Amino acid sequence: MVKTKEKEMEKKVKLDLKKIQKTLLRMKDDFEKETDSAAELVKEHEDNTFADANDLATHDTDISNEMNVKKLKDSQYEDILEALERIETEEFGVCEECGVDIGAKRLEVYPTTKLCISCQEEFEKAQKAKSMVANSNKTEQ
Length: 141
Ligand SMILES: [Zn+2]
What we know:
Residues 6-11 have low confidence and may be disordered. The chain folds into 2 domains: 16-92; 95-141. It is mostly helical. The chain is 74% helix and 0% strand. It has helices at residues 4-11, 17-51, 56-88, 104-109, 117-139. The longest helix has 35 residues, at 17-51. The chain binds zinc ion.
């Protein structure tokens, strides 16, 4: 019965980097398709702005709304690129905050995450506190 080696292999739940990389590449593809059409939309607006300079103000608001969406998408896209880069440099799966292994299960669900569960919880708590402060400022309570 020489099963020790096999058992050792089982013990270490190996991160399926190939699979995650594939998922990330698919996400990246989807984003590229989407941003292509978004970029065309913005370009159309730019053409309009040039064509009718008097109408600049209204176009500006339209564009800035689109830019906000684009910004959000860009940051998600960057996350995907960064995750792919971390796979290349073999830094993938380590929490950016505390340096522990994020865990294969979590990474399969959130392949772009840079934080372990506990750091993520801390981060979300901080975000929540921030938005609560922002809300209470708004309503002046
Ligand atoms: Zn952490």
